[in-house]
Amino acid sequence: MIKKIKDLLNKNTVNLFLCLDLIGITKITKKIFHHFFLSKKKRLRITNIEELSKPISLSIYMMGTSELHKSNDWYGHATVLKKFAGIDNDYPIKAAIEHGADLNPPWERDLNSPFRVLIGFGKNCHNYPYDITKKVYTIGPFIHYAQSQLTPHELTFERKRLKKNLLVFPSHSTTVTDASYDIEEFCKKLTTMKRNFKSIRICLYWKDINNGIHRIYRKCGFECVTAGHIFDPLFLPRLKSIIETSTITMSNAVGTHIGYCIFLKKPHYFFSQQVDHRGTNKDEIKLITHIEKSDIYQKIENAFSIYSETISEKQSKLVDLYWGLSEIKSKDELKFIIDTSEKIYQKNTITPYFF
User: Which domains does the chain have, with CATH numbers?
Assistant: First the structure.
């Protein structure tokens, strides 16, 4: 019964925003959202982490994106894909788009969306327990479709400034939980690695910056950067620039960033640490803990646990399976997927559920 109620709410939410889009309300609220919450961030440097990480409420974000399945535009995914395919950004994609590489159990909201198409990363997502009506398209690492925020000249300048650079992705919190690990131990490890690098950068998640974690890293003399807020459409372009200016990458948690680094030809090193998750949402914490103990996570940890300045064949094959290195699509292929999603939606939709 509860599942049926959730499904009904999900379907009605989509149709509510579809109606707002049809009468032109979404275009207005989207312009307001971009003017008041995003316009200033376009001009900020990735080192201006406090400004880039300022909170944006979910309710405001939901009125600030044209997407009907609102998580489609987390990290700017839908915005990036539409720009790459040459599709108007005001057009809502009629599919559910994964918001992270398929390392975790599928998000229930994606599986139960009223759209019968799911767009994911690698071949592994074909193994998800989809409804038989779902059609799955894999398109590889989403970061491929993003244009780097820095120009070629700026990228060259930054690489020269940073020289041999170690880029670090610490374990990050979520909207409803806080990640906790031995930062002192982690910083000691980074300090011992200083002799091999000219610079070390810490790429932090917006939630952890709001929690003040960056102050600890800055005290240790590390430069802190961020790709921005989860609701910022420039998240992927910033992240691409951050990775492209690095030499070697490192983390103490498995995540989408590992596949992105390998895709962009940056070797990755995994430093194993105990990470705890705290918060009031016990179900979320239980799920995260279960995921981190999964066979997939263990495989990835083991594959990257030895420091190396080259990418091994074993690592590439593993990343291909979950991030889809061989699943990259051309502009025409991506546009075909989005157009096909629209046709499937139109074929299976007669009238909004609440009419």
Answer: 2-143+326-348 (no CATH), 152-321 (3.40.50)
